[in-house]
Amino acid sequence: MQQPILAAVDLGSNSFRLQIARVENDQLYMLDGLREAVRLAAGITEDKRLDKPAQQRALSCLQRFGERLRGLPREAVRAVGTNSLRVAKNAPEFLQLAEAALGFPIDVIAGREEARLIYLGVARALPHTEGRRLVMDIGGGSTEFIIGNGLQPLKLESLYMGCVSYSVRYFPDGKINKANLKQAELAARSEVQAIASEYSQGHWNVAFGSSGSARVLCDILEQNGYSEGGITREGLEQLRVQMLKAGDVNRLDVLGLKPDRIPVLPGGFAIMYAAFCELGIERMQPALGALREGLLYDLLGRFHHNDMREVTVQQFMRRYHVDVRQAARVARLADFLARQFLDGQLGDEESHLLNWAANLHEIGISVAHSGYHKHTSYILANADMPGFSKTEQGHLSVLALAHRGGLEKVRGMLNAPSQLAQVMALRLAALIYRNRGDVALPAMQGRFSGTKFHLVLAPGWLVQNPLTEAALLEEMKQWKGLGISMQVVEG
Predict the structure, then answer these.
(1) Which of 60, 86, 169, 251 fits a 20 to 30 Å CA distance from 422?
(2) What whole-number distance in Å separates Cα of residue 263 and Cα of residue 197?
(3) How many Å apart are CA 48 and CA 59, to the nearest integer?
(4) Could you give the 3-state DSSP secondary structure of residue 183?
(5) Phi, psi of 169 (to 5 degrees)
(6) DSSP H or E segment with residue 239
(7) Where are the beta strands (DSSP E) in 55-159?
(8) Alpha helices for 70-127 (secondary structure H)
(9) Minimal CA–CA distance to 326: which of 351, 369, 364, 360?
(10) Apex CA 173: angle with CA 170 and CA 179, to 5°?
(11) TM spans, by residue (predicted)?
(12) What is the rounded CA–CA span in Å between residue 33 and residue 292?
């Protein structure tokens, strides 16, 4: 039997990376990896838009990655975008082109979700040790800090500073002098100060650096005799002297500096040096794992039905004191109706998202019962939800917002027939179970043409449930306002 293949694509702000692995039981065996220095962050303009040259570099790279991924099933590939795609105002338009070039969906993940996945990748590559670890990952546009124990991340943070963005901002021509280096270091120290009370030495036992910046700094310090092992404060001080002496990163003559890292070295150095100063780090070891490995292990968890998203939903249900029995009633009926409306074509991911939306649709009650669906929608859109991408959180948020009340508020948010069917299914399930009891459901059949919902109920049920009948009549008016007709008959 052929072993399954999984693939992860990391659309970083500096480099795009592709990692392919074979699954054997609960282990991953890396088969292939590709990396291209796209420097997406360098293409972010002052008005926070991704410029055309950066877009073209990215699309050309993704076309090459897409050729390598050709033939893999959709569920075996996960592609994520990070900081540059979080901040670019034209990211939605670019992502449409990017997905077409790659041939697979691309999720933009939040900073703390990126941190969680980085830690998962790093921790899987390290031997088990007692004590807490600090993991620092300097990306192209953001830097993640994580404290964890074993495979469990305990604290997650993402700061808006990266080796590309800082190099472009403070060292645009590659020149290095006391003034711009100090300016970059102070800017980074100011960012790190915000988390110093929780991430400084004393909160962890050993520090690790993942990412290209950490690895190249380690190589430079070790190969030039500035450090006997890893990144050290003393070694960074010696490199700092050499950088200032060279005056230009392109004239820096040190061993271990690869050509593709030259343009981003000053920014990466400033951030690393600032972290050492503010967090009291004396030594940091390079880590092998990173975001792409974390993506693969997270995907492996889904493959083995150990989905972090399910864990998060259960945690949210406990945190917001959800009525578990009511959530289960609504979830079961919503899934049944959605499959009816879509003629059995409800995909696994769509089914999962609908189920999670049903389980979480009442969390806003903990804020206020009045307009609770709006509170729920806001929480789902903005909370840190480990395992979920921003796109998935947005989908949950829209489902929650649309599950009750007027539909005018979601005009323009619902385009695909599957989205309309999910909303209708969730609205009907919440409506039918409004009394929060175990209603004796009638036999029912549903159809959806794309412009018309048709629901057939067992004869006599509406007469026995006049309140539900009145609510269904009101529901027809709501959908008519969106240009969609709804028919409910007995037969």
Answers:
(1) 86
(2) 32
(3) 19
(4) helix
(5) -75, -45
(6) helix 233-246
(7) 77-81, 106-108, 133-138, 143-149, 152-159
(8) 83-87, 91-102, 111-124
(9) 360
(10) 40
(11) none
(12) 10
When computed from its CA atoms, the radius of gyration of the chain, rounded to whole angstroms, is 26
Q: What is the mean pLDDT of each run of 10 residues along the chain (491 residues)?
A: 82 94 86 93 93 96 96 93 94 96 95 94 84 94 95 94 95 95 97 96 94 93 95 96 95 92 95 97 92 92 82 95 95 95 88 96 93 95 91 94 91 86 95 89 91 92 91 91 89 78
**What's the pTM?**
0.84
315 is written with which tokens? 């945690």
CB atoms within 10 A of CB 435: 10
Nearest residue to 354 (alpha-carbon basis) of 338, 376, 373? 338
Q: Residue 241 half-sphere exposure, CB side, CA atoms within 13 Å?
A: 7
Residue 454 is classified by DSSP as E
User: What gap in Å lies between CA 86 and CA 111, rounded to an integer?
Assistant: 9
Q: What is the DSSP letter of 91?
A: H
Element (H, E) at 455: strand 452-457
Only one residue has tokens 């026995």, namely 464
Backbone φ and ψ for 313, nearest 5 degrees, come out as -60, -45
| Strand stretches in 181-331, DSSP E | 206-210, 231-232, 283-286
Contact call for residues 98 and 315 (beta carbons, < 8 A)? no
Nearest alpha carbon to residue 264 among 140, 160, 136, 137: 140
Using the 8-state DSSP alphabet, how is residue 352 labeled? Answer: H
E-strand ranges in 25-129 read 27-37, 77-81, 106-108
How far is Cα 270 from Cα 265, in angstroms, rounded to an integer? 9
Q: What is the DSSP letter of 425?
A: H
Cα dihedral sign, 357-362-363-368: positive
φ and ψ of 358, to 5 deg: -65, -40
Handedness of CA 415, 421, 425, 428 (dihedral sign): positive
By the 8 A CB rule, do 57 and 38 touch? yes
How far is it, in rounded angstroms, from Cα 244 to Cα 63?
Answer: 40
User: If we measure between CA atoms, which residue out of 118, 140, 80 comes closest to residue 208?
Assistant: 118
156: Cα separation from own chain's centroid:
13
Q: Return the SS3 of 437.
A: coil
Task: Output the six-digit token pair for 38.
Answer: 């796209």
Closest CA to 113 of 77, 68, 69, 144: 144
